[in-house]
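Sample pair:
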Amino acid sequence: MQFQKNNALDTKALGLEVSLAVAKFVTGKENMHYGVWDNLDPCLENLGKAQEQYTKLLFKYFPKKKKLKILDIGGGAGEIAKKLICLGHNVTVIVPSDILSKRCLENTNNKAKVHNIKFEDYEPKKNQTFDLCLFSESFQYIPAKIALKKAKGLLSKGGQILVADCFRSEVKHTSHNRRPGGGHPLSEMLKLIKDIDLNIISKKEITKSVAPSLDIEQKFYNVVGVGIDKVQQGLVASHPWKMKLFNLAYKTIVSQKKRRRLHDRIYGNIRNSDNFIKFNHYMIFQLSSNKAG
């Protein structure tokens, strides 16, 4: 596998590196998904436990077969793939990121087949099919129609598609801040399932169970805000003119709208569990092809 080299500063890649480092520091693992907080206090100490509960819940929806051929679409840093391989499954991971591709290979000891490519561009080997196409919080980043049609075409006889992700509710959004969560409208998803001729084996909404993850995230940003304030106070006292120039440059380069969003993100409490529940449906869809028999 070849990875692109780029000497320019990639802010998204940098942010991803930081996110992985923070996740591993806090939980000891590089999970990048929400947690299921049932019977757990919503605090940073329990984040790892909540993420483990999410994974266990997800696995309950897998086809009842000892050894599955699984296509993990958007498999993050490979933490789920690692567990699946330990359970004896054959795992192929698709993840369009140099950093995550490398981490998948490392976390699975090179036992997973990793493709550094978008799912839309993925071309399987001739006649290759899968018992399970898994979208764990990756479905929202792919055009829904393409994701479902392509996954359906990759299923072996009796194979299933498992989607666990956020979907938008019908509640209108009026704030200048982005809505917490994300994803395709739930109404669109339900229509596409019917149009593409997929069968809903089961569906479950767990929005309230995952929502406390937003409160944990917001508290983390608020702590960052406290740190920024302390640094600013020190710099104003020691280098007042430099701080004035910095603030002037900041206001010139960053639009007022983005500054407001950043301020609310660091110091506010807009992205909380209540707003997540209001604007999202976190769904688990277990689907099969009506032609699978």
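Residues 212-238 form the longest helix (27 residues).
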